[in-house]
Design a protein that fits this description.
The chain is of the alpha+beta class. The protein contains 2 helices and 7 strands, in the order βαββββαββ.
Length: 128
């Protein structure tokens, strides 16, 4: 019986996920790579975050999105799983907006990181 928990996300873009993790200062490794769990169990993931205790966190493609995969008994991050995932999801959404708006010719003219944790962006596009 597997000790791994699979937590569903709305994360679908691997490069935006990887950029989000890097922006948050989270050290990650590109997969496919094994996520290490209880008693040597492993689960393959496309992104792996190694923890100091020898048990990993991963993001694994489920056919529609990237699930967070971990043995939660050995969670070793600052804050809860929900808080960790919320930070990543917010930065992922920001990266997705930045990638898509750049494709459409927009540039950021103003960025404000607000006290409530939200990010306010003002975008502009010059027409020829």
């Amino acid at each position: 019986m597997s000790h791994f928990s699979h937590i569903k996300t709305q994360i679908r873009n691997l490069s935006a996920l990887q950029t989000a993790l890097s922006e948050l200062g989270i050290d990650w490794k590109a997969g496919p790579k094994d996520v290490r769990g209880y008693r040597g169990q492993t689960h393959t993931a496309e992104v792996v975050i190694e923890q100091e205790n020898g048990y990993d966190i991963g993001f694994s493609w489920n056919g529609q999105a990237y699930d967070l995969v971990a043995d939660l008994q050995y969670w070793q991050q600052n804050g809860s799983v929900d808080r960790f995932l919320n930070k990543i999801t917010q930065q992922y959404a920001f990266q997705t907006v930045m990638q898509e708006t750049a494709k459409q010719g927009f540039q950021v003219s103003e960025r404000q990181n607000r006290q409530d944790g939200s990010i306010r962006l003002v975008l502009q596009r010059w027409s020829a």
